[in-house]
Each structure stands twice: as C-alpha cells, then as structure tokens.
Amino acid sequence: MQTKYQPLFTDLRLNNGVVLHNRIAMCPMLIFAAQADGTPSAQDCAYFQLRNEFGQLLITGATTIAPHIQCAQQQMSLDTDAAIPAFRQLATVMQAQGNKGIVQLQHPGRQASIGYAQSHQAYAPTALDFPFLDYPVQELTNSQIEQIIQAFGQATARAIAAGFSGVEIHGANHYLLQQFFSQYSNRRTDAWGGSLTKRMAFPLAVAQEVLRVARQLKPDFIVGYRLSPEEIHGANIGYTIDESLQLIEHLAQLDLDYLHTSIYSSATFRVPAYKAFALRGNRTKPMNALIHDQIAGRSALMVSGSIRTPAATLDGLNYGDLVALGVVALSDPQFTNKIRTDHLDQINLNVHGREQDLQLPPALIQKYRAKAPLPPVLGLSK
C-alpha cells in the first residue's frame, strides 16, 4: 500500500467502544430485491456477500419500520418479529469477513408511494397538497407520532435479535424525519411543529428511543443518524445549514456513534455552504467541515457524495472521520482491498457486461437504465 493511503486504514473508536479498523463504509442504497413481505431475498444476500469486504461499515438500503409505508418496489421492511430469521441470514452474510452490518431504518412519510398503493394512505407532518405527489397525504395525529417513535425502537430490537452490529436512522432525503424538521413540510402548531425547537422534537425523539433500546439490549450496538445538511430548492426553503447545525448540536449531545451527511444531487462532499445563496449568508467553508467543527469529536462524522477514486476517498478524511461510497461499491467490490494491496490500476468502475458478475439485481439495473446509462469507466487519480 502506498504510504499516503495509510490514514484510510487507521483505527477509529466509536462512542460505544467498538473499534473500526478502516475508515471506509458502503453507502446505503436501495437495490429493489426484497421478497414480497419485505424480508431479504437470496439476491440481497448474494449482493452483500460479494461486497462484504468493501468497508468496515456495510449499510443496507432504507428498511421500513412499519407495514405499508414502502417508498420503492421490493424494499426491505423490518416491521415484524417474523422477519428476524431472514434478516439474520443477511447479517451473517454481511459480517462474514468481520465487518459491521448496519440496517438503515426509515419511515418515508409522504414519499410512501408503494405503501399508498397498498393501503390508500400516506402520512406527513401536515396534510398539504404537495405538487410533486399524485396522491393525498394525511396529517399524523399525536398518537400516531408516538407509535412511529416506538416502531423505530422495535425495529432496533429486531435488528439486534437478527445479529446486526448497528442501525442508521434515516433522517435525510426528504423522508419523514426530515419532513418534520422542514418548515416547508411541517406547518403544525402543536408540540411537534412551529418553532425550530419544536420541528427538531420528532427526529430527536426517534434518536433517543433508538439509543435507549440499543443501550439497554446491547451496549456496543452502533447507532448512526443520516441527515441532509440543508433543504433549499430555489425559493422553497425547508431549512438552512445554520438551522441544521442546531439540530446537529442536539444530536451530538445524545452520544450517537456517528452522524452521516447526505449531500443533495450531484454536489460533492466538499460543497460550500450557501454556494448559490449569497443573500442568505456569506459562508464559504464546506458544509461537512462546518458540521465536523460543530460535532467537535462527540461523534464520528461520515461523509459521502460523488466519491469515486482513491484520492477522493483519502480527501474525505479532511472533512470527516469515515468515508462512504456508493457507485464504487456497486462497481468494484474489491476497491478497498485494491488500495490496500496497491493495485489501483485494477480498479474498474465500468459495470457494462458485468452486471451478473456484480450480483446487481435486475430491478436495480432497470432503475439505472431508466434514468441514465450505468456508471461508465471513470478516470482514476492515484
């Protein structure tokens, strides 16, 4: 291994005492392969078996915590104890090489398009007419909100029973936790909305419940939280990086093992805050750097976003403590080992003609091709 890449293979001790032996993680990605009941399929297991050496943390795609709320076809769901045996098989496969298997827990809220097709119901903090949805949403009651908080805790207990090493709370990508934090989505006037403090209440309550269950049942169980640092779409402002930093401050006080940033669209992990919004501030420091400063070592920070080369992976450690890769994990499961063994010239991100060898599920291939060509060969910087 080239000396300059040694930082990627240094130990990192998490708050719960678990020691990770490299700084590379596999991004959570939906692969559209679950059984009809939401349990992992043989295809899910084959996909992760091929990638179980990719990084110290291997994170599943978004896995729902209640029935009839899926946002995608063939999405995994850990909503019943009956699912535990199938998830146990997946955990065994993911962790066969000593890495940590993490289940990403999600409630999509208004984005539950598949769930709506099944139950004719979709829920949101506020019953608004969202122009990008072709179905109505119902406003969650206080009782339903409490049930969802408990459901995150119950799914955490199931992940522990299935033998996973941890869970990641999905608070990003416009799903329910982010919807509560967003002033665009959340127009409530009760304890769950209105002021910034009240808009933080639901995501913090979920994090606290997941941590409570984890620390009670398995003290070394890893708990992470993924968030989108800002929600700005033209004139539509859900929240700014400054508001996000206040949420991050509260999350950092909870003793989470890591926070994980999800940068919207094609922006990289180094994108400056307020890059295109000078009237709302004059920040030029990258958002991940601001977040890392705010956390101040109280949790690890995982960064992600268009990281596709060994050099970019190494650069990620200038902005966080862990680096998560998505396209690379799909395209070259041996990426990390090739860095370790100094075979950078053998890294291959061209999946054309290799789909079966890479154990890419047919529905995943179809999704990619419907949007754009599959990832081409990328120029790699050594």
Strand-helix topology:
Blueprint: E1 12-13, E2 19-20, E3 24-26, H1 42-50, E4 57-59, E5 63-64, H2 84-94, E6 100-106, H3 113-119, E7 123-124, E8 138-139, H4 142-161, E9 166-171, H5 176-181, H6 196-217, E10 222-227, E11 231-233, E12 236-239, H7 241-252, E13 258-261, H8 287-295, E14 300-303, H9 310-316, E15 322-325, H10 327-331, H11 335-340, H12 362-371
Parallel strand pairs: 3-4, 3-15, 4-6, 5-6, 6-9, 7-8, 9-10, 10-13, 13-14, 14-15
Antiparallel strand pairs: 1-2, 11-12
Helix pairs in contact: 1-2, 4-6, 6-7, 7-8
Give the tags.
alpha/beta; 382 residues; 32% helix; 8-stranded parallel beta barrel; 12 helices; disordered C terminus; 15 strands
Quick gist of this model?
With 382 residues, this protein is of the alpha/beta class. It has twelve helices and 15 strands.
Textual characterization of the structure:
- The N and C termini lie close together (12 Å).
- 32% of the residues lie in helices and 14% in strands.
- Strand 11 (231-233) and strand 12 form a beta hairpin.
- Mean pLDDT is 92; it is low at 275-279 and 376-382.
- The protein has 382 residues and is of the alpha/beta class.
- It has an eight-stranded parallel barrel with strand order 3-4-6-9-10-13-14-15, surrounded by five helices. The protein has a two-stranded antiparallel ribbon with strand order 1-2.
